[in-house]
Write a structure and sequence with these properties.
By secondary structure, the protein is of the alpha+beta class. The protein has two domains: 95 residues, Disulphide bond isomerase, DsbC/G, N-terminal (Nuclear Transport Factor 2, Chain: A); 140 residues, 3-Layer(aba) Sandwich (Glutaredoxin). 40% of the residues lie in helices and 18% in strands. It has a five-stranded mixed sheet with strand order 7-9-8-10-11. The longest helix is centred in the N-terminal third of the chain and has 35 residues. Keywords: Disulfide bond, Periplasm, Redox-active center, Signal.
Length: 244
C-alpha cells in the first residue's frame, strides 16, 4: 500500500509540474491582453492552440489566437489544408454546443407536425424577415417539434411586438399568424406579465445568440441563419443518425 501511495504521489507531482508552464502561459496571456487591449471582451478560456507555440483565446463563442506571451494577437481562421478541415470553425462549434434538454422550454412557444419526435429550438425576432422565411420552411418538416424563444434583438418595435405575442390569449397561434400570414398582433391587455421576453433575452445572451434565426439542434449544435427545409432535414438526419 505504501509503494502504491508513493507512486501515486510521484505521478501527481509529475502532472502538477507539467501543468505549471501552461498555467504560467495562460496567466501571462490574460495579463498581456487585458493590458494591451483593454477593449477586448471578457476572456472565457485560454488553451494551447492547434499549432506549436500558438495559443487559443476564447471570448464567448469567438476564437482568436496569440503567442505564448500575449504580445501578438491573431484574428483569423486556421485551416488544415491536407485534411480539408477548418480547425477554428470546429472549435467554435464545440464551444457553442449547449445542453439542449437544459433549455427552459416553459418560456418557449411550441408547435409540432406529425409525431413531433424530432425536436429543435429556435431564437427568433418578430421583425426578422429571415425568421419568417425559416418559419415557412419549418411548415414543410415532418415529425418535428419546434420550440421558439421570441427575443427582441433587432430594435425598433421588436420589444413591443414580442410582449404582444407573449401576452396574447394563444401566444403560439398569434406568433404563427404574424410570421406566416402577417396578421395584425393584438393589443397588450392591461397588467400583462411579459417577463418571459426579458428571460428569453437573457437566455439568448447566455448562450451567445447574437442574430436571428438561431437554430439549436438536439445534440446542442446550432445553425446560424435561415436554412431551407432540405438543409435542415439533412442536418437532423446527421444529428439523429438517420433516424426519422
Amino acid at each position: 500500500m505504501k509503494s502504491i501511495s508513493t507512486r501515486c504521489l510521484a505521478l501527481l507531482a509529475v502532472l502538477v509540474t507539467a501543468a505549471l508552464p501552461a498555467l504560467a502561459n495562460e496567466a501571462a496571456i490574460r495579463k498581456s491582453l487585458t493590458t494591451l487591449q483593454p477593449q477586448l471582451p471578457k476572456i472565457d478560456e485560454v488553451r494551447p492552440g492547434p499549432l506549436p507555440g500558438l495559443w487559443e483565446v476564447r471570448f464567448g463563442n469567438q476564437i482568436k489566437y496569440t503567442d505564448a506571451t500575449g504580445t501578438y494577437f491573431i484574428d483569423g481562421e486556421i485551416h488544415d489544408l491536407k485534411n480539408q478541415r477548418n480547425l477554428t470553425e470546429e472549435r467554435v462549434v464545440a464551444a457553442s454546443r449547449i445542453d439542449f434538454n437544459s433549455l427552459p422550454f416553459k418560456d418557449a412557444l411550441m408547435w409540432k407536425n406529425g409525431s413531433g419526435k424530432r425536436k429543435i429550438a429556435v431564437f427568433a425576432d418578430p421583425n426578422c424577415g429571415y425568421c419568417r422565411r425559416f418559419e415557412q420552411a419549418l411548415q414543410e418538416m415532418k415529425d418535428i417539434t419546434v420550440y421558439t424563444f421570441v427575443i427582441p434583438i433587432l430594435g425598433g418595435d421588436s420589444p413591443e411586438k414580442s410582449r404582444a405575442i407573449a401576452c396574447a390569449k394563444d401566444p403560439t397561434a398569434t406568433y404563427l399568424a404574424w410570421m406566416l400570414r402577417g396578421e395584425a398582433l393584438p393589443k397588450m391587455p392591461a397588467g400583462c406579465d411579459s417577463a418571459v421576453v426579458e428571460r428569453n433575452a437573457a437566455l439568448a445572451q447566455k448562450v451567445w445568440v447574437n442574430g436571428t434565426p438561431a437554430v439549436i439542434l438536439p445534440d446542442g449544435t446550432r445553425l446560424p441563419g435561415a436554412v431551407g427545409a432540405v438543409e435542415l432535414e439533412r442536418r437532423l438526419q446527421q444529428v439523429l443518425g438517420g433516424k426519422s
